[in-house]
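ok posting inputs for the glutamic acid job
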Amino acid sequence: MKDEALQAIYDAILRRDPGEDEFHQAVSEVLDSIAVVLRERPELADERLIERLCEPERQLVFRVAWEDDEGAVQVNRGFRVEFNGALGPYKGGLRFHRTVKLGTMKFLGFEQTFKNAITGLGIGGAKGGSDFDPRGRSDREIMRFCQAFMTELYRHLGEHTDVPAGDIGVGARELGYLFGQYKRITNRYEAGVLTGKGIGWGGSHVRKEATGYGLVYFVREMLARRGEGLEGKKCVLSGSGNVALYAIEKLHSLGAKVVACSDSDGTVHDRDGIDLALLKQIKEVERGRVRDYAERRGAEYLEGQRPWAIRGHIALPCATQNELDVDDVAKLVENGCKVVAEGANMPVTPRAIDLLHEEQVDFGPGKAANAGGVATSALEMQQNARREVWTFGDTEAHLAQIMKDIHATCAKTAEAFGAPDDYVLGANAAGFIRVAETMRALGVV
Ligand code: GLU
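and the output
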């Protein structure tokens, strides 16, 4: 870090929170970006604002005990990190994945604070989840786990307090079980306490599609700046969950062709373009793997590999953190890749981001590029508060405008600080300025 004061703050975090590598990574990226902001606006660091910003307002860690189908008791760990509530109720998803630990939740809650800020909407940042591994678990086991999880978490939630949603391992099924338990315990039909709900019970149209669609809208803006469009562009993306599926849907509808996607076991390379109906059937209905897709479609399957060696103009990492490193960037560049944008949270490593910038590949960071999901969650909260249901078309028009605005905010902010092509700087600086100004207005809390 070039700035000494920021380096001292960062060193203190390393000492105080040892072993939380992902959190350190997320903090270091933001502190790097805001050094230029603080040179012009030193008052934003007054009253230990940066130290307060890097310390979660509240961290909840709790035991989740539940019974599996054999009647054996299982013990997991639950988390909710309410990172920053300056801009509104804590907002952010729940992740159920075996790798989840406190440092993961802190990195995601920290990122979410800035992401939510640049949507321009009134939502604070949070993240939660568990080290529960849903793979291979029956529906009933998932239900009992979700009920046990909510039996502790419910006391910390509320439509004006903290509003979770989905993330990896948490979709409509899990949100249904979580909402059912919340309603049972509290005796309140408080639709606005969770987002990502089913359409019949308080959910919003386009929420399911929002992160993927929003990502593509963001990429469209990035391309437009170069005087290009999506028509005819070849794309490779990782993942095959909610973000990936709906990014593929929007890319195909706008004339691009996605030739690769993946899961944690391997990659499918489908030269004719991914058959989305088949992929949705396998992933959303059968809860299967991309290997099944490759077999049924007769496409190439690359066991244990990620898609970054496959040729494409646009690469969209939509799986998980740190899934695209420097070697991958070298391959992408060699294959003519011109645009990389993050559908997942922090999928590109810091060294890989530096190399992308060096190679003049346009890079859209997740805080901006994947903000469409949480932005549409905020639209769901608006509908819940007004007891309204907007049409698919109206909601999508809102989302498209929000993504356009986010892109413009990042580009304008980056330009104002003398680095017009640096969306990382633009996103971090714009998010920071909004949160920091608000924290100053709210006093030392
Ligand atoms: N988990 C999503 C994200 O990373 C969505 C959060 C939400 O809708 O609250 O932004």
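notes: DSSP finds 16 helices and twelve strands in the chain. The pocket of glutamic acid is lined by residues 91-93, 165, 167, 195, 345, 373-374, 377 (CB under 6 Å).
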